[in-house]
Amino acid sequence: MQLTAEKQFIDQIQSMRDRIFRVTKRILISKEEAEDATQEVIIKLWNMDQEKRSSFKNIEAYSITMAKNYCLDRLKSKQAQVLTLNEQLSTRQSNSLIKQIQASDEMSWVAKIIDALPEKERLIIQLREIEQYDFDQIASLLEIPEGTVRVYLSRTRKKIKKQFLEIQEHGI
Fold first, then answer.
1. What are the structural domain ranges in the chain?
2. Domain 2-77 maps to which CATH number in 1.10.1740.10, 1.20.1510.10, 3.40.50.970, 1.10.10.60?
3. Rounded CA gap, 66 and 72, in Å?
4. What is the Cα–Cα distance from 99 to 93, expressed in whole angstroms?
5. Are 28 and 75 in contact (CB under 8 A)?
6. Could you say which DSSP state residue 143 is in?
7. Is the pLDDT of residue 40 over 50?
8. What is the predicted pLDDT for the residue at 21?
9. Does residue 145 register a pLDDT over 90?
């Protein structure tokens, strides 16, 4: 029975590992620190009593919350290393080099704008737009009302759009 529970836990963790990593990466920026944080969260979950783990309604939500809190503690205890934004750029397939460079530049600016957001706004954008969480899941994770999540998301999207358009119009 113990082996079955461990196998089931490993299967659960494997399915959640990427999401945990993306959340930690968004908060900590550095790939290396995000990998360390992801590993720490998984180790904490592994060391947790199996009975306690099975008592959670949603182990994924619990692990994401655990990851978020771990990252916030880490940021408070020391400044996270900020690596180049090249890690954050997604590669787009394009016919021309000019379009590729332009798309890369735009992604870079959006990433910089998002990284400069206050932490709560940055986390809400990450959870909704990248992780595709529902509003109620985000509200539960951040322990704020669902309406507040919607307001934050709307204001943050407008803020990102405004800053991006200013960059396009005026250049920086």
1. 2-77, 93-170
2. 1.10.1740.10
3. 10
4. 9
5. yes
6. T
7. yes
8. 92
9. yes
Q: What is the pTM of this model?
A: 0.51
Tell me, what amino acid is at 14? Answer: Q
Q: Which two tokens stand for residue 78?
A: 């020391």
> What pLDDT sits at residue 84?
36
Around Cβ 119, how many Cβ atoms within 10 Å?
13
Q: Token digits for 71?
A: 């990252």
Do residues 6 and 92 touch, judged by C-beta distance below 8 A? no
Task: Yes or no: say if 125 and 153 are a contact pair by the CB < 8 Å rule.
Answer: yes
* CA separation for the pair 4, 2 (Å, rounded): 5
* 8 A C-beta contact, residue 153 and residue 122: no
With CA atoms as reference, report the closest residue to 81 among 20, 19, 27: 27
Where does 29-145 have alpha helices with state H? 31-47, 50-55, 59-77, 97-116, 119-125, 135-142
Which CATH number describes the domain made up of 93-170?
A: 1.10.10.10
Tokens 């957001």, residue located: 117
Query: 153 falls in which pLDDT band (50, 70, 90)?
Result: very high
